[in-house]
């Protein structure tokens, strides 16, 4: 037992959270503070979403101070790492600090620049295996216009912790156009776009030590001055780490408002359809591919009050129904496991008739059958997602964990296991802040080498309560999945 403690900080959309781990796994010391956003629609209809960078730093100080105060030995903290929302950026002023608001990951002010970015960097994006999105950081930087510098959300916070400018991590820099294969900013692409590469931060691998906690933050938080500040990853990667998907073949599916799939591959996955992109992981030169679907619990919440989910699924346990085949999209468009901007939710009547709009489902089949069909449909999308990454060359034979708010419903967890045909593990602790604490722990132990995330995650898993759902064979379910897939192929959304 080393007695050392490590902190992780998660910069989410709605809050900042901090957590601590030691040799035995997560500690009960956790803290959170709310964050506030400004959201509106611009004259052209595109989304705007901003936050105050100063509020990020103040909230970080508050949660770190609370966690440190709750430790048996505050002096035992040996490192801290921070994750942030992927694609959130800030323009700097002449003095080197933020000159305006933080432009959030889902702000679309760069949408008019996205196609030009895709065209100018087409060869690079093809080599890296992804398609630049309209809300990615690189188009956003062009929309912000010339500035003395630009930084990502985590860069602002790590500079605050250290008291001086810090490097960015390769995971956070991905949506700004960082070339993770060559390990550099693509200067020639940036120059053609009119973006000065010197305005962007130096980039290091996740797990690199950025510096030590400065005296000012030490005085406010109780951390010892000089405590190592470790380069983190995006919030999605942090959650993946906490869930234990850190070795090739291991995957984590997060089911909340949407469905997000993330895993580990020994090789870079290149997706011609642009539905999957890969972060460079901290260990072994491995890649962390992932994709996000528009389906998720939102579709069920539109159908029935979430407070009634448990009652409905209890009724389905007592008296199972044959659910209709459903593609559960909440609006127009899907981005993963297939890219179809015009796709809309639909369901297939049992009589073999034509597909019908999702809005007609509940009235036609009843609430319980509609609920079961939508829940199963989300699982069908998840199965299709695994088929997609496997077709791109990913190993999907390892353990699969499930996290996210929707995993509180055990009936749905079981249905997902039945659809996927593999055991699903639901850990009781998979917070992104815990993932960052584990990264800090592994990085400090590595002392400049590759952090051993496999060992760090194993220690947490051994200490955690894990609920496993074993799959149950169901021929009728397989028939429904075949109909589901055939309907998508008929519309040209997936291969026949």
From TrEMBL:
UniProt domain Carbohydrate kinase FGGY N-terminal: residue ranges: 6-118
Keywords, sorted A to Z: Carbohydrate metabolism, Kinase, Transferase, Xylose metabolism
InterPro entries reported in the protein's UniProt record: ATPase_NBD, Carb_kinase_FGGY, FGGY_C, FGGY_Carb_Kinase, FGGY_N
SUPFAM superfamilies (UniProt xref): Actin-like ATPase domain
Coiled coil: none
All residue ranges annotated as the Carbohydrate kinase FGGY C-terminal domain in the record: 254-443
One Pfam family cited in the UniProt record for this chain: FGGY_C
Molecular function GO labels: kinase activity
Similarity comment: Belongs to the FGGY kinase family.
Entry protein name: FGGY family carbohydrate kinase
Organism (species): Actinomycetospora aurantiaca
């Amino acid at each position: 037992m080393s007695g050392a403690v490590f902190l992780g900080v998660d910069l989410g959309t709605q809050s900042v959270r901090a957590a601590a781990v030691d040799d035995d796994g997560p500690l009960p010391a956790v803290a959170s503070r709310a964050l506030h956003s400004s959201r509106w629609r611009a004259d052209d209809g595109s989304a705007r979403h901003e936050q105050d960078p100063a509020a990020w730093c103040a909230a970080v100080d508050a949660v770190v101070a609370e966690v440190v105060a709750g430790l048996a030995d505050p002096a035992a903290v040996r490192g801290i790492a921070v994750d942030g929302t992927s694609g959130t950026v800030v323009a700097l002023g002449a003095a080197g600090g933020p000159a305006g608001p933080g432009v959030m990951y889902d702000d679309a002010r760069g949408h008019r620049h996205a196609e030009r970015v895709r065209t100018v960097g087409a060869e690079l994006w093809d080599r890296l295996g992804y398609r630049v999105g309209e809300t990615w950081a690189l188009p956003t930087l062009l929309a912000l216009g010339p500035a003395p510098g630009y930084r990502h959300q985590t860069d602002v916070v790590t500079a605050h912790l250290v008291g001086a400018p810090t490097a960015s991590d390769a995971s956070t820099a991905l949506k700004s156009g960082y070339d993770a294969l060559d390990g550099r900013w693509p200067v020639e692409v940036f120059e053609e776009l009119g973006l000065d590469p010197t305005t962007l931060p130096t980039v290091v691998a996740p797990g690199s030590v950025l510096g030590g906690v400065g005296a000012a933050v030490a005085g406010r938080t109780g951390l010892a001055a000089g405590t190592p500040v470790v380069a983190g990853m995006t919030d999605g990667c942090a959650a993946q780490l906490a869930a234990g998907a850190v070795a090739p073949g291991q995957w984590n599916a997060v089911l909340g408002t949407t469905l997000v799939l993330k895993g580990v591959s020994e090789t870079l996955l290149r997706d011609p359809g642009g539905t999957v992109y890969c972060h460079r992981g901290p260990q072994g030169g491995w890649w962390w591919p992932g994709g996000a679907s528009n389906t998720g619990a939102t579709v069920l919440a539109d159908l029935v009050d979430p407070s009634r989910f448990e009652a409905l699924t209890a009724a389905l346990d007592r008296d199972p129904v044959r659910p209709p085949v459903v593609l559960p999209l909440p609006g127009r468009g899907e981005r993963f496991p297939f890219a179809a901007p015009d796709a809309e939710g639909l369901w297939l009547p049992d009589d073999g008739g034509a597909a019908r709009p999702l809005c007609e489902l509940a009235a036609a089949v009843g609430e319980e059958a509609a609920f079961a069909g939508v829940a199963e449909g989300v699982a069908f999308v998840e199965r299709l997602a695994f088929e997609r990454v496997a077709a791109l060359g990913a190993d999907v034979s390892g353990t699969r964990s499930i996290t996210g708010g929707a995993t509180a419903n055990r009936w749905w967890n079981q249905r997902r296991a039945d659809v996927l045909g593999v055991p699903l593990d639901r850990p009781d602790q998979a917070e992104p802040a815990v993932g960052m604490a584990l990264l800090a722990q592994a990085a400090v132990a590595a002392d400049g080498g590759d952090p051993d995330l496999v060992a760090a995650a194993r220690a947490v898993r051994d200490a955690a309560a894990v609920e496993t759902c074993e799959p149950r064979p169901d021929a009728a379910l397989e028939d429904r999945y075949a109909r589901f897939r055939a309907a998508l192929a008929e519309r040209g959304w997936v291969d026949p």
